[in-house]
Amino acid sequence: MRHNKKFNHLSRKAAHRDAMLANMTISLIMQKRIETTLAKAKALRVYAEPIINRAKKDDTSSRRVVFGYLQNKEAVTELFKEISQKIADRPGGYLRIIKLGIRKSDATEMAFIEFVDYDENMAKATKKAAKTRRSRKPAAKAAEVQTEAQAEAPAAETPAAE
Question: Environment class of residue 60 by beta-carbon count within 10 Å: exposed (0-12), middle (13-18) or buried (19+)?
Fold first, then answer.
């Protein structure tokens, strides 16, 4: 029976699943954003967030625990030097999942998973200007009215100048 076993097994044995999630976490730390299936992204968030949270406290014990999960010196160094600086004041929720739609070949839902603090594209995006109310006049009539207004304006100015 599978009472109280709520995490997604991803159709893999435990060792394969742990190795896959560790490799995906390494890729996420090094690249800050990866594209994967929605199910893997959700499983990765559950796996990676406690590891990322451990990086807030930079001591030997924390480094050894994180290295036990990841087994990659470069990823551990990146996590403790760069990423821990940006997430220091964040109480949780370090990763964001953005759904992309379905993959054409097998109709699997795809998603981006990324660090919340590292999304340069979202930070640079500015709000669009508010839409102005447009005239309901046809374009030809509007242009005609505008040219008439311009023609009348200089004629009005000429007598006033004399």
Answer: exposed
pLDDT tens per residue across span 14-63: 999 999 999 999 999 999 999 999 999 999 999 999 999 999 999 999 99
Rounded to two decimals, the pTM is: 0.72
Q: 51: buried, middle or exposed (CB in 10 Å: 19+, 13-18, 0-12)?
A: buried
DSSP code per residue over 125-145: PPPPPPPPPPP-S-HHHHHHH
Give me 88's structure tokens: 């220091």
Name the one residue in this structure whose structure tokens are 């100048």: 161
First to last CA, the chain: 100
**φ, ψ (nearest 5 deg) of residue 6:** -100, -10
